[in-house]
Amino acid sequence: MTDHTTRLDHVVLWVADPVAAAGFYENTVGLEPLNVAEYTEGKVSFPSVRVNEETILDLAPHSLVERMNMLPGSADSAGHPVNHVCLALPSVGFDALRARLAAHGVPVSDIGYDSSGARGNATRNFYFQDPDGNVFEARHYA
Question: What is the mean pLDDT of residues 14-36?
C-alpha cells in the first residue's frame, strides 16, 4: 500500500544526554524509546522516542553538531530550540500525562482552553519542558 499524504515524520531535539532524555520521555511522558541500547553501544548516532506509528522524536547529542553539514549554516542550529512541539492526545492520555509530569515533579502551565491547532480548537492544553529546555504543548480535541 502506498500512501502519498504529507505527514510529520520526525523532529530532532538537541539534548545534553540522549540516554537520560530517552528515559524522561519514556518514564515521564510515556513515549516508547527506540535504539537506546544501540546508541550506548555506539551502533547508532542517537536514540529516538516514538510519538505514534508515524512520528518519532530524535534525541541528538550536541556532539553531532560537526556532522550537521547538509546545508550551509546547518551546524548553527545546534542549541537553537524550536518554540515548542505539540502532542495531541486523547482526553484520557492528556490527563495521564499531566499526572505523570506531576508525579515526576515537572512544572506545567495552567490548563488553557480553545487553543487553535491543526484540527481546529483544542478542548484543553498545557505546556511543559523536558530536562534540556525543549518546550512541549499537550492538548486534546473534543
Answer: 97
